[in-house]
Design brief:
It holds the Pfam family AdoHcyase_NAD. By secondary structure, this protein is an alpha/beta fold. It contains 19 helices and 15 strands. It has helices spanning 15-27, 30-38, 58-69, 86-94, 116-124, 144-158, 170-185, 189-196, 205-216, 231-254, 270-280, 293-301, 309-312, 331-335, 355-360, 393-396, 403-422, 436-444, 459-465, and strands at 49-53, 73-77, 108-109, 137-140, 199-202, 224-226, 262-266, 285-289, 305-306, 318-321, 341-345, 365-370, 373-377, 383-387, 431-432. Helix 5 packs parallel to helix 7, helix 6 (144-158) crosses helix 7 and helix 17 runs antiparallel to helix 18. Bound molecules: 1,4-dihydronicotinamide adenine dinucleotide (NAI). Residues 204-206, 234, 237-238, 241, 266-272, 289-292, 295, 322-325, 328, 346-348, 392, 394, 400-401 line the site of 1,4-dihydronicotinamide adenine dinucleotide.
Length: 480
């Protein structure tokens, strides 16, 4: 605690650099800046205590300061151990009016290269604001903050936190330990938090999957807005964001020439489509694996060969997972790859590539080339290069998606926060999407910056196609 502000970041003296980059990013985030102007006077989030768990980057700093400008009190952590940009975290803590000696911004608990134990400690810091109050809103990315509240409340209701067993993976053991420590201090902590939360707005595919499952099982403790499935989120961030940040991550990590290389993309959903375009744009020969016939057919129609992973193990130069599923590349498969093949993941969780299995291969040697770049040498002497230890490489090895595309995602986030906070009682304990007119609004806010001149429907044309002159222009089932 400095100057009455709690935080845990790497180095506050990085704040000046962070501030300069935040100011550049603001210019590239017209949607968020328009939201700041629109709500400057009405402050719809006054009284909101927002707990945010989302990659602590420069772009996220602009989101955080937007939420503050809308009236919210905010606490923030990263949703990945490697994704924090330390200068962004420092600048948010110092704030727009503070100094390194007297920080006056927002409490952040995040640094690049947390251990998993530190990660769950940070996440736990979200649930007690400085005045002892619990949060009443969550911004989540991947669902870890929501998971902690749900598990905590479940164990409190049961009267005991289960002891970790050897069958639990390391991360689940740490979750149990974090909850046990918290509950030891306050036996009803998470129950109280859950009762206060008006809603969660979830950023990504994997987090949304968790929410739908909780809702289906009747276990969701508060309303949720699925931000990911706004068209202006998943059809932009997941696709065009990855198109930018995948090649960026590989380049910064390895500087390997991508042209001419054989790149294997596992999964051809929104992220996979962006990944394929990213590497194809660099002249790589891209092949794809899929389980869904529709996505496989889409890949084929784009001129991409659709293969089974085992068919290309011995000849692929790069292997990138994008599925949001687990067990996509096994240790045995990695052992069959070419010398110095590059293996990386851009799906949300680190279980797409079997890193635990790789570490268990007898005689295998891991060598750090630099942080988040390792070679793993098999007993026969050949090696593979693994990026970000199997975690999101676009954030671990580079700086994630660029500001402009994140402005689309985060404008959805800000609107969703306002929606759930200002309309308690209008939403059930279920998962909702933002209505299409708001999705169209987010897009509209980004047109001027690109010089887009939109054609206006005449009244007669609008009647002919059965829409309002001002939109929405498409039915909900339209797929873009
Ligand atoms: P999606 O559902 O559109 O695509 C995933 C695709 O993987 C689907 O087409 C599915 O059929 C396929 N798939 C599933 N199991 C497979 C298997 N065993 N082999 C081959 N293909 C398989 O999901 P989306 O939106 O593309 O997200 C993918 C992941 O990326 C999620 O974990 C999401 O949270 C994450 N994400 C990461 C971002 C980043 O910055 N790195 C940005 C946005 C999302």
């Amino acid at each position: 605690t400095v100057n009455g502000l709690e935080f845990a970041v790497k180095d506050l003296s990085l704040a000046e650099f962070g501030r300069k980059e935040i100011e550049l990013a603001e210019h590239e985030m017209p949607g968020l800046m328009a939201i700041r102007r629109e709500y400057a006077d009405s402050k719809p989030l006054a009284g909101a205590r927002v707990a945010g768990s989302l990659h602590m980057t420069i772009q996220t700093a602009v989101l955080i300061e937007t939420l503050v400008d809308l009236g919210a009190e905010v606490r923030w952590v990263s949703c990945n151990i490697f994704s924090t940009q330390d200068h962004a975290a420092a600048a948010v803590v110092v704030g727009r009016d503070g100094t390194v000696d007297a920080p006056a911004g927002t409490p952040v608990f995040a640094w690049k290269g947390e251990t998993l134990e530190e990660y769950w400690w940070c996440t736990d810091q979200l649930f007690q604001f400085a005045d002892g109050q619990p949060p009443n809103m969550i911004v989540d990315d991947g669902g870890d903050a929501t998971l902690l509240v749900h598990k905590g409340a479940e164990f409190e209701a049961a009267g005991a936190v289960p002891q970790p067993t050897d069958d639990d993976n390391e991360e689940y053991q740490l979750i149990l330990k974090t909850i046990a420590d918290s509950v030891a201090r306050d036996p009803k902590r998470f129950t109280k938090v859950a009762a206060e939360i008006r809603g969660v707005t979830e950023e990504t595919t994997n987090g949304v999957k968790r929410l739908y499952k909780l809702a289906l099982d009747g276990e969701l403790l508060f309303p949720a807005i699925n931000v990911n499935d706004s068209v202006t989120k998943s059809k932009f961030d997941n696709k065009y964001g990855i198109r930018h940040s995948l090649a960026d991550g590989i380049n910064r990590a390895t500087d390997v020439m991508l042209g001419g290389k054989l790149a294997v993309i596992c999964g051809y959903g929104d992220v996979g489509k962006g990944a394929a375009e990213s590497l194809r744009g660099q002249g790589a020969r891209v092949v794809v694996t899929e389980i869904d016939p529709i996505c496989a057919l889409q890949a084929a129609m784009e001129g991409l060969e659709v293969v089974e992973l085992d068919d290309v193990l011995h000849k692929g130069d790069l292997f990138i997972t994008t599925t949001g599923n687990f067990g996509i590349i096994s240790a045995a498969q990695m052992s069959k790859m070419k010398h110095n093949a590059i293996v990386g993941n851009v799906g949300h969780f680190d279980n797409e590539i079997d890193m635990a299995g790789l570490a268990k291969i007898e005689g295998i040697k891991k060598l750090e080339i630099k942080p988040q770049v390792h070679t793993w040498t098999f007993p026969d002497g050949h090696a593979i290069i693994v990026l970000s230890e199997g975690r999101l490489l676009n954030l671990g090895n580079a700086t994630g998606h660029p500001s402009f595309v994140m402005s689309n995602s985060f404008t959805n986030q800000a609107i969703a926060q306002i929606e759930l906070y200002t309309k308690p009682g209008e939403y059930e304990k279920d998962v909702y999407r933002l209505p299409k007119h708001l999705d169209e609004k987010v897009a509209r806010l980004h047109l001027d910056a690109l010089g887009v001149r939109l054609t206006k429907l005449t009244k007669e044309q609008a009647e002919y196609i059965g829409v309002d002159v001002e939109g929405p222009f498409k039915p909900d089932h339209y797929r873009y």
